[in-house]
């Protein structure tokens, strides 16, 4: 076990961790957004008069779900640079 | 990594007071220009004063009435008009900062974590202050405990746990506000930078002839998406600030 040899791996492993972080986060976020927007469209199809309220609430939900993916993106920035 | 260089502020006039670094960077100049633009646009749109609004007055009136109806009346009710100047200033400032970053040579102020964290800390102070002012310090602390706890020793342990969880969620709100705005703006600009730098990365004439049109088209598409994201993030920040204030003032039962 060579200490300096292992230390050379650290930048590469950091970038690997960065890629993995945002990849896994995008997985969950994609599923969440798909469910969210799908339900919103379903609601709009059932009752077109409430489309405005549904659209506004959908955007707020999208911002919450996207924030989780963006936390992982911040970690990726920290790891890559 | 010359990508990050575009996202860091460049210092124009170094200025240190004591041990605080108050240099005039391009981020500071962008914030000044955004403030000036907000003030001038809204003042002149208000001065035009036609009975049937057209043009700039129409645009600004529709934005202001959007803030008044969707962000204040829907969430805070009639007495929420006290908060209207704060929420409207937040909305217009973030909107103009985001859109100003798309102009060439201008820095996106909100893509700096310090700017968004300052805005989030101000919102945090406002929500806690509003809750304490409305209900008194003890009454506000009482809202941390949900109703209907079982009695006995299990109830005490559960109550302590719930108060702890409530603390964490209250602290997570300004953090998420700051990071949401910061990461949205930075990620958008970073994608545009990656597409443009792809043109320079490819050596050789054939690769460049193939890559340049695609990279330019994608960069234009991402710029259009950035306009939408800038509008959306300003709206989200303002409506979340409004919702947090309403939760502090009328605690839900």
Would you write up a description of this structure?
The complex is a heterodimer of chains A (81) and B (253). Chain A has 81 residues and is mainly α. Chain A has a domain at 30-81: F1F0 ATP synthase subunit C (F1FO ATP Synthase), CATH 1.20.20.10. Chain A is built from two helices and no strands. Chain A has helices at residues 3-46, 51-80. In chain A, helix 1 runs antiparallel to helix 2. Chain B has 253 residues and is mainly α. Chain B has one domain (2-249). Helix content of chain B is 76%, strand content 4%. Chain B contains seven helices and four strands. In chain B, the strands form two sheets. In chain B, strands 1-4 form a two-stranded antiparallel sheet. A two-stranded antiparallel sheet of chain B has the order 2-3. In chain B, a hairpin with a 2-residue loop joins strand 2 and strand 3. Chain B starts with a helix and ends with a helix. The model of chain B has no long low-confidence stretch (mean pLDDT 86). The chains are: A mainly alpha (81), B mainly alpha (253). At the A-B interface, helix 2 of A face helix 6 and helix 7 of B.
SSE map:
The complex is a heterodimer of chains A (81) and B (253).
Chain A: H1 3-46, H2 51-80
Chain B: H1 2-7, E1 11-13, E2 16-17, E3 20-21, E4 24-25, H2 26-48, H3 55-76, H4 84-100, H5 113-142, H6 152-201, H7 205-249
Antiparallel strand pairs in B: 1-4, 2-3
């Amino acid at each position: 076990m060579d200490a300096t040899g292992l230390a050379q791996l650290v930048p590469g492993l950091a970038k690997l961790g960065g890629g993995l972080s945002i990849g896994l986060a995008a997985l969950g976020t994609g599923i969440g957004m798909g469910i969210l927007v799908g339900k919103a469209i379903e609601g709009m199809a059932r009752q077109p008069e409430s489309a405005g309220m549904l659209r506004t609430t959908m955007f707020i939900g999208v911002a919450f779900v996207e924030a989780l993916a963006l936390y992982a993106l911040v970690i990726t920035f920290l790891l890559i640079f | 990594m010359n990508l990050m260089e575009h996202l860091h502020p460049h210092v124009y006039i170094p200025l240190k007071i004591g041990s605080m670094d108050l240099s005039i960077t391009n981020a500071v100049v962008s914030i000044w220009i955004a403030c000036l633009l907000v003030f001038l646009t809204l003042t002149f749109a208000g001065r035009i004063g036609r009975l049937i609004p057209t043009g700039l007055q129409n645009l600004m009136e529709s934005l202001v009435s959007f803030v008044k109806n969707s962000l204040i009346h829907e969430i805070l009710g009639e007495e929420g008009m006290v908060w209207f100047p704060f929420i409207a200033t937040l909305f217009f400032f973030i909107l103009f900062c985001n859109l100003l970053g798309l102009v060439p040579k201008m820095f996106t102020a909100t893509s700096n974590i310090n700017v968004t964290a300052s805005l989030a800390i101000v919102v945090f102070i406002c929500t806690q202050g509003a809750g304490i002012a409305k209900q008194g310090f003890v009454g506000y602390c009482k809202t941390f405990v949900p109703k209907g706890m079982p009695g006995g020793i299990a109830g005490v342990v559960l109550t302590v746990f719930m108060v702890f969880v409530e603390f964490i969620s209250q602290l997570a709100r300004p953090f998420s506000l700051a990071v949401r705005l910061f990461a949205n703006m930075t990620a958008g600009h970073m994608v545009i930078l990656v597409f443009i730098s792809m043109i320079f990365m490819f050596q050789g004439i054939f690769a460049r002839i193939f890559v340049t049109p695609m990279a330019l088209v994608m960069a234009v598409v991402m710029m259009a998406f950035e306009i939408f994201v800038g509008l959306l993030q300003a709206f989200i920040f303002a409506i979340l600030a409004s919702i947090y204030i309403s939760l502090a003032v009328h605690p839900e039962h």
